[in-house]
Design brief:
Length: 126
């Protein structure tokens, strides 16, 4: 079974990383940044994870992305499947989604690594 690399990132910090599959979370899912109580938190904080994972459609997108990873992995070429998922700043939606996807893929028996490219960056004023 092939391994999976997941990279979360923020579009406001640069171009998406190279990936087989890139998920853009900016337009369809509410940004915790708009809530003053969540703005300076990150996906490392439970209130952010609860807000993101409670957003309608996120669980379905995690499942659909896991299915897409399985399709990539079942192809004739072997190797790591790379998934990049991005939000605006890379501190809330993208890393939470990445961790949820990693948990789903690991439960399915895949070897998963996760890298949060922009989680450590300061809040972007917008």
């Amino acid at each position: 079974m092939s391994s999976v690399e997941i990279i979360s990132f923020g579009y406001l910090h640069g171009e998406p990383p190279p990936a087989h599959l890139t998920i853009d979370l900016r337009q369809h899912f509410r940004d915790p940044h708009v809530s003053p109580e969540l703005r300076y938190m990150t996906a490392e904080d439970e209130p952010v994870r609860t807000a993101v994972l409670g957003t309608p459609g996120i669980a379905d997108l995690v499942a659909a992305t896991a299915a897409a990873v399985a399709a990539f992995a079942s192809g004739p070429s072997s190797g790591t499947v790379t998934v990049a998922d991005g939000c605006a700043g890379g501190r809330h939606r993208a890393p939470t989604f990445a961790q949820a996807l990693a948990a789903k893929l690991a439960a399915d028996g895949r070897t998963v690594t996760v890298h949060h490219r922009d989680l450590h960056r300061p809040v972007v004023d917008r």
